[in-house]
Amino acid sequence: GRAFPVDVDACQSVGDLKDVIKGEKTNDLKDVDADKLQLFLAKVEKGTQGSRIMHNGIH
């Protein structure tokens, strides 16, 4: 798959993030429950594309 932006507040949980991802990719994830998604930390150097979605090292 490809990376895509989602908006979540820093105070939201990983479960909330999974729900947002599931909502953005309903067709691709139609047979996958949000709680079954596996998320991995990705670090991006400052000034590179995607750095705006980093918050305290959390992607």
TrEMBL record:
Asked if the keyword Secreted belongs to this entry, the reply reads yes
Q: Which InterPro entries match?
A: Crinkler_N
Q: What is its main location?
A: host cell
The organism's lineage is: Eukaryota, Sar, Stramenopiles, Oomycota, Peronosporomycetes
Domain Crinkler effector protein N-terminal stretches: 2-45
The residue range of the signal peptide is: none
Where does the source fall among the domains of life? Eukaryota
| Species annotation | Phytophthora nicotianae P1976
Q: Which GO terms describe its cellular component?
A: extracellular region; host cell
Q: What is this protein called?
A: Crinkler effector protein N-terminal domain-containing protein
- Give the UniProt subcellular location, in the record's own words: Host cell; Secreted
Keyword Zinc, does the record have it? no
Q: Which keywords are on file for this protein?
A: Secreted
Query: What Pfam families does the entry give?
Result: Crinkler
